[in-house]
Q: What sequence folds into this?
């Protein structure tokens, strides 16, 4: 969780206005960062590490922010879209991944995108694949490739691809039902079909 100083530093900056940051010789705006030519190499490296951490942490922070807002204030995605400037689907994805992974299940050594890759799997499979990715230093793309390969060869047979033509009104109803269940449409469809098959 960010400290109050970090949250203060993360506040939106009016376009074109520079804000002094902790790292001496670095000035940032909402759309750029400028570096003093005398910035020491070690400071430059440390700043890159911090920016990288923020890039994945903010997805978790926004997901948790949305979950809290929903619990406390009800469905407010319209307000969240306006407050953040992010589109609805991006925010829904952040919330979905944050909901699927309680903070104690999140792997700090992996990115938010690693977690999103395995979001549709059951908890045991998620933990297995995230542990593997962390142990072997897999990128998000490598994790994706390995999960897909494993799913394609499960039970020794390649995965079937089923294509359906669905009228837009039905898709809208399904999407609405998926949203009420806080699920991605694809995950919701698979869950409903699996439940019906039982």
A:
């Amino acid at each position: 969780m960010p400290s109050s100083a970090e949250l203060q530093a993360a506040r939106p900056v009016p376009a074109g206005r520079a804000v002094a940051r902790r790292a001496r010789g670095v000035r940032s705006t909402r759309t750029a960062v400028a570096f003093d030519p005398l910035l020491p190499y070690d400071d430059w490296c440390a700043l890159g590490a911090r920016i990288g951490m923020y890039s994945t942490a903010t997805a978790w922070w926004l997901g948790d922010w949305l979950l809290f807002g929903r619990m406390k204030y009800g469905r407010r995605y319209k307000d969240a879209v306006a407050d953040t400037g992010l589109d609805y689907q991006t925010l829904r994805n952040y919330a979905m991944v944050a909901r699927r992974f309680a903070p104690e299940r999140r792997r700090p050594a992996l990115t938010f995108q690693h977690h999103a890759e395995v979001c549709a799997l059951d908890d045991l499979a998620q933990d297995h694949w995230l542990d593997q990715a962390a142990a072997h230093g897999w990128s998000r793309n490598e994790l994706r490739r390995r999960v897909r390969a494993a799913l394609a060869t499960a039970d020794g047979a390649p995965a079937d691809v089923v294509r359906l033509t669905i009228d837009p009104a039905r898709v809208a109803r399904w999407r609405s039902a998926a949203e009420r269940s806080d699920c991605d449409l694809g995950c919701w469809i698979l869950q409903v079909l699996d439940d019906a098959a039982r």
Notes: Residues 43 and 49 are 10 Å apart (CA to CA).
